[in-house]
Every structure is written in structure tokens, then in C-alpha cells.
Amino acid sequence: MHNSLRSLALTAALLSGVGGAEAGTIVMPSGSTVWMKMNSTACWDGVTGGADDCAASNKAGPNPSNGIPTSTFNGRGITATTSAEVLPDQVRTFLSGRSAFLYVSLEDTYTVHGTPVDPFDITVQLNMEGIMRSWDSGTGTSIGHQMIVTTVTAEIGTFSPDSTNDINEQFRVNPFPGASATYSAPIAAAGAPFSVPFDITASYTLASVLVGGTFKLAYGINSAFSIGEIDMLNTGHISFVLPEGVFLTSALGGRFGEEVTSEVPLPAALPMFAGGLGLMGLLGWRRKRKNVAALAAG
Predict the structure, then answer these.
(1) Are both 128 and 70 inside the same structural domain?
(2) Residue 87 belongs to what domain range?
(3) Across-strand partners of 126?
(4) What is the pTM of this model?
(5) Which residues on neighbouring strands pair with residue 215, listed in sequence order?
(6) Residues 155, 163: contact at Cβ < 8 Å?
(7) Domain-embedded: residue 111
(8) Residue 283 Cα distances to 118, 227, 295, angstroms
(9) How far is CA 166 from CA 26, 27, 174, 238, in A?
(10) Are 23 and 17 in contact (CB under 8 A)?
(11) SS in 3 state form for the chain?
(12) Residue 100 and residue 110: Cα distance in Å, rounded?
């Protein structure tokens, strides 16, 4: 089941760097719950000759409506365009160009509400649908539209800080066993533009959950290619399969499932009581009419 996209204020905290030696390092603040980064050779660092950070965004606290605005970067004749936005139940991303990588992750804390008293299982799903498109490689040949090493990955797990890695790689998601899904399009080239749809779902089941309890989950979305375009602007849904009568609220403002409300039933004897009152009224009316008739005759 997919939850509808909620309208939240864009209280974004954005940091972005442009290609060249001056591209800055983005550091994840302590306590942050949302993190994203674009890396591309379009933002060549001018030192090692490799890719560097093009743009990133990170934010701590609630209301994570947060993202990288649509930005285009140029370097060494290479162009890369990216945008991304995170909401409690949806992640939207777009990536296009040559040799580009976009990673988005978020962590949320959920509180369980409802009526069941016994432990139960909850299944969470991260579904990613979109389109991979060819990109004009600018080769000047008849085979100008290419899609090379185009891959998307969905992950459910926990934040896994690693101080041995580059600072911008620390806040990746460490997937639970079996809670990741990847799709890679075949390498292809053609004279005209072409596209390939994708639809993948990562899922994970939490066992023995209790009403009143809390739990944390982290989600990772990875888009990468050598040449191509990955359009996931309208999808990337977080949803839960919940028992009847159970719903979740999240620290980032999400709500999943429906609270069950039932009308208070009438007591079983009430209809009989109402019927008895009606019968008594009828008998009283007939008795009164009989008395009036007797007085008139006398």
C-alpha cells in the first residue's frame, strides 16, 4: 500500500559545491536523520583527477522535507544534472549526465499505536519505480544515445557510521539481511533516444512488535551510471503492511495505517424496551377511549 504524499513546508538546509578544486566537503551533522550526496567527474577535484562532491544536503530533526534543488554541473566537457527531495513516506530523485552517483538516506523512529495486546509482525517496504533513459553522449557519431552501467538500489536497515571511510561515506545504510534490491539496465546504444522502466521493492519484517513500542529504520536509495539518466521524481514509497487496528506515527511526521474507530453499539435490550413502551402506550390509549365511550352511554 502506498501512502499519499503529504504537503510539508520545504525547510531545507542545503549545501552545494561546484566543480573544480574548490568543491567543498560536506560533513553530516551529529544527530542528523537525512543525508544525500551527488558525486561526479563533472565536479572534477583538480587534484586527483577523479570525481568530487557536486552537491549535498543534510538535516537534523523533524520535518525532513529537504533536498538538493535541480542543479547542473559542468567540468572537463562533462555535464551532470541532479535533484532530490525527502519526505517521511516518499523519496524523489533525478540524475542525468555522465559518470554520476547520487545517494540518499534517511532514518526515522516509529511509534506503534492500536488495540492488539499480543505481539505481532510488521512488514516495511521501500518501492522504487522509475525510468532509465539514454543520454546524448555528445560523441558526434551516428550512435549518440547511450545508457551504460545504469543501476538503482533500494536498502532498508540502519545507519552505519564508519570513521575509517571518507567523511561523506560515513552515513550510509547498512541493510538488514535480504532487505535490499538492485536493478541494472543492460549496456545499450542507439541513434535515437530510448528508455527502460524499472520497479524494485526492498522489504523487511519486524517480529514480535507491541502496541506502545518504538523502533528505528533507515532507508537508502542509490542511483549511479557511467552514461544515462535515472528519473524517479514521482516514486520511492515507504509503506507498511500492518495488522488491522494498528497504525504508526513517525518522528519525521509520517503516519501509516488507519486508526480503527467503531460506533458504540446499542444495548441488546434497548429495542425490546422501546417496543414495550409503545405497547403500553397503545393499551393506555385503548383503555382511555373505552372509558370515554362508557361515560357517553351513561
Answers:
(1) yes
(2) 14-256
(3) 202, 238
(4) 0.76
(5) 110
(6) no
(7) yes
(8) 54, 91, 19
(9) 11, 10, 16, 28
(10) yes
(11) CCCCCCCCCCCCCEEECCCCCCCCCCCCCCCEEEEEEEEEHHHCCCCCCCCEEEEEEEEECCCCCEEEEEEEEEECCEEEEEEEEEECCEEEEEEEEEEEEEEEEEEEEEEEEECCCCCEEEEEEEEEEEEEECEECCCCCCCCEEEECEEEEEEEEEECCCCCCCHHHCCCEEEEEEEEEEEEECCEEECCCCEEEEEEEEEEEEEEECCCCEEEEEEEEEEEEEEEEEEECCCCEEEEECCCCEEEEECCCCEECCCCCCCCCCCCCHHHHHHHHHHHHHHHHHHHHHHHHHHHHC
(12) 33
Q: What is the C-alpha R_g of the chain?
A: 30
In the beta sheet, which residues pair with residue 36?
A: 57, 104
Each residue's pLDDT tens digit in the chain (298 positions)?
A: 333 222 222 222 222 333 322 344 556 656 678 888 888 888 876 666 567 778 777 665 444 456 788 888 888 778 889 988 888 899 999 999 988 899 888 899 999 999 888 999 999 999 999 999 998 876 555 667 899 999 999 999 998 765 555 545 567 888 999 999 999 999 999 888 999 999 999 999 999 999 999 999 999 999 999 999 999 987 789 999 999 999 999 998 899 998 766 554 545 554 555 555 455 555 565 565 555 555 555 5
Task: State the first-to-last Cα distance of the chain, in angstroms, to the nearest integer.
Answer: 81
Block residue for cell numbers 566543480 = 19
Both 157 and 283 in a single domain?
no
Which amino acid, residue 53?
D
Please give the grid coordinates belonging to residue 63: 520535518
Shared domain check, 276 and 148 = no
Q: Domain count of the chain?
A: 2
Is 54 contained in some domain?
A: yes
Q: Report the alpha-carbon distance of residue 93 to residue 126 in Å, rounded.
A: 14
Residue 162 Cα distances to 46, 75, 218, angstroms: 26, 30, 16
Residue 22 falls inside a structural domain? yes
